[in-house]
Amino acid sequence: MKMQLNKTYLILAILLFLIEACIAIFLKTGFIRHTFGDYLVVILLYCGLRGLTSLGIWRSAILVLIIAFIIEFLQLTKVLELLNLQSNHFAKLILGTSFQFLDLIAYTLGIITILIIETNYSKHFK
Fold first, then answer.
1. Least C-beta-crowded within 10 Å: which of 52, 58, 69, 101?
2. Domain range for residue 32?
3. Which domain of life is it from (predicted)?
4. 22, 11, 90, 93: which is closest to 44 by C-alpha?
């Protein structure tokens, strides 16, 4: 994997980050905050990865899904306490605080969406 900038993916990542920030700031509960935000976060990570590296579609998608699953399963442990980050708001936001099976479904659907878009429209992103 080598570093390679792709402006289109980086712009998409920035836009998705702004949307995620708005969700985190303005919505404290509900479907958009808890499920749709998880759906979007894997798309954000994918766009960021594709915007900064030369990894292909499938490798990027699988890597992002693995990372998302690892973070979600870490929530079954006391990882924040082990890292002495239980009071750190940013760490809680990134690593989460409780395992939710629906989050795994949201991550998977986000990656499936990416793969559908990429296989049908990828020529527009290059």
1. 101
2. 7-124
3. Bacteria
4. 11
